[in-house]
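Reminder to self: tokens first, then the designed residues, so the page reads top to bottom the way the pipeline ran.
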């Protein structure tokens, strides 16, 4: 049985008191807004989260999934989730696919907006990187059918360094460049060093402090640079504040939804996964950075 420490139990309540609005309106807007006017439907942001295995959606992305499902009406967001393998290496594929469905029921993603793909070129394999073209080909039909505007996925380090995770960003980034593609933006989940990965409920506090300090520093330097350039009659460059990570943090209720969602993956709940749920920062917050492609520059 999982033994939660007092910090693990009390921190959600303290955090919800200190920062009741974790998933700020600005963060959600930055994550979902089109870079330019969306010719397909300027009033709706269609966001596709792409994962490698059933359980990724709960283990790594729960703060984002909960934030976006909660914001669907207020921000005109449609969230879709595509898992590119059945997770056959970690158990019975049919069982894992069903667990994925149950997890997303908890997280609030409608059954018509989620897929588990079973493709020969995209097999769950701890020793193999996936081919970028195979990833592009697998996801393109979903993008074309649903007119996806934003894609979310792992960065090139894949949080856990699993090669399937690490492969996704390269293949998905190609979708922005395809002729006629509706995709405007790609965001990667930031992987952090091991010493930051297991701070548990302390991670939001540290992230909050770091964000405030860095934004304050950037604001001061930006103001000074703009003043100098204005005096020289030179147009100011793009503000560095716009390139800071998008941070979505769970309050205690959203955190608990992530825990309950992960508990649906019963075939995967070995003892070390319980430790992960108790201490992983990714159950508490997600930090996103936008991928720069030639079209998005």
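Designed residues (297 positions):
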């Amino acid at each position: 049985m999982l033994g939660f420490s007092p910090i693990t139990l009390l921190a959600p309540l303290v955090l919800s008191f200190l920062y009741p609005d974790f998933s700020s309106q600005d963060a959600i807007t930055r994550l979902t807004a089109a870079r330019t006017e969306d010719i397909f439907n300027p009033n709706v942001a269609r966001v596709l989260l792409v994962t490698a295995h059933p359980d990724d959606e709960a283990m790594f992305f729960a703060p984002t999934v909960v934030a976006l499902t909660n914001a669907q009406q207020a921000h005109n967001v449609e969230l879709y989730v595509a898992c590119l393998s059945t997770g056959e290496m970690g158990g019975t594929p049919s069982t894992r696919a069903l667990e994925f469905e149950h997890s997303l029921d908890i997280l609030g993603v409608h059954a018509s907006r989620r897929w588990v793909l079973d493709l020969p070129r995209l097999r769950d394999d701890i020793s193999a990187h996936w081919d970028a073209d195979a990833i592009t080909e697998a996801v393109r039909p979903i993008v074309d059918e649903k007119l996806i505007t934003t894609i979310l996925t792992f960065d090139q380090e894949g949080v856990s360094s699993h090669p399937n995770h690490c492969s996704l960003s390269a293949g998905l980034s190609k979708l922005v460049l395809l002729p006629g593609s509706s995709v405007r933006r790609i965001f990667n989940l930031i992987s952090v060093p091991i010493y930051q990965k297991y701070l548990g409920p302390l991670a939001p506090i540290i992230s909050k402090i770091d964000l405030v300090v860095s934004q304050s520093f950037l604001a001061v330097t930006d103001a000074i640079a703009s003043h100098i350039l204005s005096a020289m009659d030179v147009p100011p460059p793009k503000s560095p504040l716009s390139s800071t990570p998008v941070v979505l943090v769970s309050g205690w209720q959203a955190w608990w939804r992530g825990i309950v969602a992960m508990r649906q993956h019963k075939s995967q709940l070995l003892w070390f996964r319980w430790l992960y749920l108790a201490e992983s920062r990714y159950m508490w917050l997600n930090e996103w950075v936008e991928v720069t492609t030639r079209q998005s520059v």
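Residues 20-202+243-290 form a domain with the Rossmann fold fold (CATH 3.40.50.10320).
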